[in-house]
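Helix-turn-helix domain-containing protein structure dump, as promised
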Amino acid sequence: MSGMEVNVERLRELRRERVLSLRELEERSGVSYNTIWRIEDGRQGAHPRTVRKLGEALGVDPSELVKKGQ
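structure tokens r here:
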């Protein structure tokens, strides 16, 4: 798994709270649908830049999306 380990439950929870589909999050963040899907599915980690983009799109500090202890 490359990059930072993302707290997938938190990512999914934030996306659902904002009633965003994967496609809508893709549009807001500039991160591809496939990348978001793989991160949420736990198939891959994320580069710090990706975590930053997702955090900005969801309106949270990027650190909220990273598993603690990193």
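The chain has a mean pLDDT of 93.
lmk if u need the other ones
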